[in-house]
Design brief:
The chain has 302 residues and is an alpha/beta fold. Helices cover 47% and strands 12% of the residues. It has one domain: TIM Barrel. Helix 1 links the parallel strand 1 and strand 2.
């Protein structure tokens, strides 16, 4: 087993009061990640509201992260798009700026109807990335693509020369176990459910991409240390804080609530874009006041 958990923050995209990119906030975001011992940034993914941004905006965000901390953090760029040509354009751009890798969901509006079509879509995007490591982003709750990741992974390993692993965001731990068996140790598995990380660790996963790591990297380092030392009760308690935060946030949109919580950590990333509504300070305080989440969140931010 690896002696360290690789933590990649699925970073928020900062917007200003007019809903435009606020790229001056990126250094503040990066400083928090580095101070918390986070290893990298996953840019323009679900947490980063990538699907609510134009192609040019996504390129600008990826470029900014590379310019600010590309030499200090692993920058993985999400390039998935409903339009494959746009996904390929984003993958080629990520390669041109020297990103550490790209990840992609398959087209998610007009969806691939079988594994062959799904693989064909991902092969095309990976090809546009050249020799850059390519990760399949499996997130069925968002894409509606419910083909088990394990069915896709074995095909991708044969079809994509630059295949490097899977970003797995699902509660299907049986499928995760099969993906882990297929990938490790040659290819990476990044788990994307912050609230179930202990379960993934038990399956041998040693990589995580998640939204909570924007402000809670130290908390997750402690969780991993407790798990590795066999302190199951402490690991469970630390995981419970995350479950509480996710559970309270989910009915309101999740990403937008955690973006508001980030401001409590001193990293204000501005409003969210529709279709997510912006969670105001008053709304956040109301959410915390009507739940038991405040102590958990305060421990996460410590």
């Amino acid at each position: 087993m690896a002696d360290k958990l690789e933590l990649i923050a699925a970073v928020f995209t900062p917007f200003d009061g007019d809903g435009l990119l606020d790229l001056e906030a990126v250094p503040r975001q990066a400083i928090r990640l580095i101070d918390d011992g986070v290893d990298g940034a996953f840019v323009c993914g679900t947490t980063g509201e990538g699907m609510s941004m134009t192609v040019e905006e996504r390129k600008a965000v990826a470029q900014r992260w590379m310019d600010v901390v590309g030499a200090r953090l692993k920058i993985l760029v999400h390039v998935g798009h409903a339009c494959l040509e746009d996904a390929c354009d984003l993958a080629s751009h990520a390669r041109s700026i020297g990103a550490a890798g790209v990840a992609a969901v398959a087209p998610f509006f007009l969806k691939p109807v079988n594994v062959d079509d799904l693989v064909a879509c991902l092969v095309k995007v990976a090809g546009a990335a050249g020799d850059l490591p390519f990760f399949y982003y499996h997130i069925p709750m968002a894409t509606g693509i419910n083909t088990p990741a394990s069915e896709v992974t074995s095909r991708l390993q044969r079809a994509i020369p630059n295949f490097a692993g899977v970003k797995f965001t699902s509660e299907d731990l049986a499928d995760l176990a099969r993906v882990t068996e297929l990938c490790l140790p040659k290819d990476a598995v990044y788990y994307g459910r912050d609230d179930l990380l202990v379960d993934a660790l038990a399956l041998g996963v040693r990589g995580a991409v998640g939204m909570s790591y924007n402000f809670a990297g130290k908390h997750f380092r402690s969780l991993f240390d407790a798990f590795e030392s066999g302190n199951e009760s402490l690991a469970a308690a630390l995981q419970a804080d995350v479950k509480t935060m996710i559970g309270v946030s989910f009915p309101h949109g999740l990403t937008n609530v955690l973006k508001a919580i980030s401001s409590m950590a001193g990293v204000d990333c501005g409003p969210s874009r529709l279709p997510l509504h912006t969670v105001s300070s008053d709304e956040l305080q109301a959410i915390l006041a009507t739940s038991s989440a405040r102590p958990s969140i305060e421990r996460l931010l410590a």
